Amino acid sequence: MKQLILILALALTTGLVANNNEGKAKLAVVKGKVLDNQESLTGVKVMVDNVPTTVYTDFDGNFFINNLTIGKHTLSFSLVAYESKVIEIDVTASQNIEVKLDSK
């Protein structure tokens, strides 16, 4: 009897774990670098459309956006003394992009 209960409990928990993964959005990481001609830009504000996520470039001009849903997104880049830039990306998997900003 104990073995039957153990087998049923195991089957039930396995089914619950499998069902928890259904219907979840697929996520990706978008990373990149922001440059001014040849120089990396530090502190560039990177915003994603319809997502409460804002990141800034590090000292080497790199940025990382984690847990971005698969699909089309608009990224906005801004930094004082530079022209803001908006680009559209179609995220199908984790990817790496390079963006160049022009000085004002």
Describe this structure in words.
The protein is α+β, with helices and mostly antiparallel strands. The chain is built from one helix and eight strands, in the order αββββββββ. The strands form two sheets. Strands 1, 2, 5 and 8 form a four-stranded mixed beta sheet that branches. The longest helix has 19 residues, at 2-20. The protein starts with a helix and ends with a strand. Residues 15-19 have low confidence and may be disordered.
Task: Report the helical percentage.
Answer: 10-25%
Rg of Cα set: 21 Å
Largest sheet properties? 4 strands, mixed
Number of helices: 1
User: Which oligomeric state applies?
Assistant: single chain
Total individual domains: 1
The top-level CATH class is: Mainly Beta
Instruction: Give, in order, the helices and strands.
Output: HEEEEEEEE
Q: Averaging pLDDT over every residue, what do you get?
A: 84
Number of strands: 8
CATH architecture: Sandwich
The N- to C-terminal Cα distance equals: 78 Å
Unreliable parts: 15-19
SS content category:
alpha+beta
Provide key terms for this protein.
104 residues, alpha+beta, Immunoglobulin-like, four-stranded antiparallel beta sheet, 1 helix, elongated
Record the SSE blueprint.
Blueprint: H1 2-20, E1 27-36, E2 39-40, E3 45-48, E4 54-56, E5 62-69, E6 71-78, E7 85-91, E8 95-100
Parallel strand pairs: 1-8
Antiparallel strand pairs: 1-2, 1-5, 3-4, 3-6, 6-7
Quick synopsis:
The protein has 104 residues and is an alpha+beta fold.
